[in-house]
Structures are given as structure tokens and as C-alpha cells.
Amino acid sequence: MAGPFGPSEKRECEELIKAVLGTFTTQYTKHYALALVKKKEKDANKPPKFLKLDKRKPPTDDLKSGYLTKEGGVRKSWKKRWFVVHHDYTVDYFADEKTAQKPKAKPKGSIGLCGYYVTEDLGNALLKRVKDLADKMGMDVSALPGPKTYPELCFEVYHYRRRSYYIEAATKEEKDEWVEMFKTACRRAYGLRDKDKVHIRAFNNAVTHTRWELGRWGYGSYGGTEEQILTDIISDEIDWTVMGRVYNKISGPWMIRNGIRNTIIKTLDTLVSAAVTPGWKGMSTAVGELRPKIEPVIGEMVTPLAEQKQKIMDKIKEGALSQINPLMDEHVIPHLSKIIEIITSPMREGFAISLNLWEEQMTKYAETFDAANFQKPFKDFLWYPRSWWNLRGAYEKVEAMYDPLWLLREIVSDIYPWSLIWTGRDYISGTMDNAFFTFENHLKKNLEENPSAGKEAVDAARSAALEKYKHDIEWLTVDYYMHILKCIIMPPFNKIVIPVGKAILEPIQDMIPDAMKQFIDLQEMFTELVNGIIEGVIKNVLEKA
After folding, report:
1. 402 and 460 belong to one structural domain
2. Does pTM surpass 0.70?
């Protein structure tokens, strides 16, 4: 240990931990105050509602349950377990179904999936990790043992730092269903313990700006509790800054090298955890005490703050547009039409298929309508959009974007195709769900007003929901294009434009009165300006497409 990871490396890691936590503390405190301002501004000026469909609250029933076989975390033996995916996308597993159904049943284990992803093709994934590890360790991959083999019906729920889970299904069909369920749960699981919207905004912005302060451009992809996310940020920074040198010092055959590496990682995990746990507790306590003191002050300042921010924004535009527009012409506009060609048809086609499926369900409902039990099919409507099998045709249209988006990485490196595709799938399933819910609400109201209306009430409810559904599809299609284009363009563009912005913003600092300094963030205003400009350019290109 003294050779590859001696006292000097340990001190360097400790200094990095201290520096990252210090940067995050500053960013979190600042963005907490700014998030309070945003909340007050939003309360004072309610944003317009663009969507017309009623929004259904998430169901509270379990999403899926069934038997799967799981590899143990320590002994590595395989045990059959009853898995339950709850409505909040947390996962518990029990000894058997009977145990799970007992009141207040205690699970054998629980899995918090935020930050995880699912690996279906384990052979290739494990082989790639072996090759990546060989690169890190400076070893010839041929000197490493082959990766462990797993059964064909096995899939992995993977995190690059936390425990991974190896799970086997009984049949190919069951594997496909559970893989889709776990993918959805990984994407939608919520990690942060504090559910307050001000905290969520402040924490997420602090993560992004901490990365930028460290020179890590883009938005990152972290998930988990507050402590887990901070641990991942710090561990990544140590990995990028220190560990390459450490791994190069480790010599000997693979078994010895890997043993030393694992020992070093455990040492680092202990170091980071010992700093993060009390560090986050201190930050959380500090902002909790700060909020009741500054919230009333912000409430009194909303109007003067808005007026001052408008003056500052005008000044930023005056200095920024001449700098930003040439960068837009060089780095953004040439790529937009190429990307739009890739995304336009798949999303429209996916929405069209989902709309046809909805209308088929509505036709079946009208044909079998029973006034005495008119709400009985509503439960089927609740689960219909949540079934991957039902919407597979629509999803396949969106998934067709994967290969061309991946090829675009040669132009824009910060593209994550599956993330963008899953967002499109969420748009499709969520809109269909809201259309069913809107139909249910209209039908209930129609029958309350006229209990004898019968199928006329059904037709009227269907027509009203259909009109809103079509409106929302049009709006959300453009919104999705905007989302996907900004996700692709903004990270690399920020890398170019933010350094330019710092020079523009420096002389404007004096415009902010002392009483408002902690509530106005010039960098955030500059980012909003850049976002607005890019949105305008995207809309322009979309109109011509």
C-alpha cells in the first residue's frame, strides 16, 4: 500500500475531498437562496398552462411482482426470491410470496435504483469492463482472466460504484418484462431524501455548477441520495486526478494488482464517506436555519428584484449578443438541421401509433358500455399505458433514433441516446395516460349531469378528450424536439460560451445593489440568455424543416 498509495497520495485525496466539498457548499448555499427567489417569483406570476389534458396522479398500487432468482451479495449463491416493484419504483425482495403478503412484512432486502441501469447483454458488458480496467491498470487485456459467465436469462442491475445485482428470470418472456420494468424503475426512481422543491432545485444546480467549477463540462448523470451523489462527484474527481498515477505504480500479476486496487478503493470509500456524511449534515442544517430568515426578505423584494434583473439582463444582452451569435453560427446552426432530420419522423410516428391505440380502446369501451358499471374498465385504462407490451410499436419508432444519434457523437460528444429515447417514451406513455384520465373525468361529469345520457355521454367525453389529446401531442412533439436538441447542443456549447460570459459579466457586477447581491446570479442570467437564444434558433430551424 505504501508504494502505490502512500501518504502523499492520501494527502492529495484529502485536499481534493475538502476542495470539492467547499465548492459544493458555496454553490448549494448560493443556489438555495436563488431557488427561494424563483419560488417567490413563480408564486407571484403563475406560468401559463400549455397542456390541456388532465394530469393523473401516480397510482399507489404495486407496479409488478413475481419470482426471480438472485445472486447473493456475499456468498454468491443463487436464491429464488419474490420481487415487488412499488409505485415509487423502490424494489423489495422477500423469501416467498406468502411472506410478502403479510401485514408489515419485512423484506429480505431492498434496492434503491436511482443512478442504476440495466445490462441485458452481460457477456459483452463484462468484457468491456475488463478491457477498461486493463487500460486503467496499464495491463495487456490478454493477461487478465476472462469475465465470469452468467446464465442466458440473467440480467444485471448495475452501478459503477455501488453494489450490482445479478438476477435471473425463468423464461425469455419473463426476462423481457422484468428488464423493461427495471429499466423504468432505474429511470424514474427518486433518490434525494429531501423532497422540498427549493432543495431539489438548489441541490441539482449546485451539482452542475460544482462540476463546472472543476472543469467538468456537461450536466453529469448522478443518482441516489444526497450523500451518494456527493460521494460519486468526489470519487470521480479523485479517479480523474489521482488514481491514474496510483494504478501505474501497481505491479505484479493480475490477482495481486486487483487485490491492491480493491484495497485502495475501500480506503478511498472510507475517506470520502467520513467527510461527506458530516459535511452534508452541516450544509443541510445551515440552509434549514437560513430559510426562515431570508424567505420573508425575498417576499418583500420580488418586485424590485424583477426590475433590477431586467435592467441587468438588458446590459448582458448589450455585451453578449455580438460574442454569442458568431459562436452560434459556427458551433450550433450547422448541426441543427442534421439532428432534426433524425428526430422529426420517429417522435411523430410514435405519437400517432399511441393515439390510434387509445382510439381503439375507446371504441371497445363504447361498444361494451354498461351504465351500471361504467367505471369498471377504468382500472384497465390505468395500467394500459404502463405496459411496455401495449406500446411496443410506438416505442420502436422512437428507438429507431438510437443508431443515428450514436453516430452524431462524432460531431457532438455529449449525446446519450438511450436517455433521450426514454424521455420520448415517457412523453408517449404519460400523454396517453392523461388522455384516459381526461376521458374518465369528462364521462363522470356527463353522467352526473344526465344519468340517462348513455352512449351519448361516452361519445361526448371521447370527443372532448380526443381534441385535448391531439393538442397536447402537437405541443409535446415540439417540446420534445426542443428538449432533445438542447440536451445535445448545450453541454459542448456551454464549454465554449461560459468562459466568454465571465469576461462579459465582470463589469456588470457593480450594477447589483449590495442588498440584492445574494439573490441575483449573473452566471445564471447569462445561462438563461444563452438558453433563450438557442431556443429561438431551434424554433427557426423547426419552422423551416
Report:
1. yes
2. yes
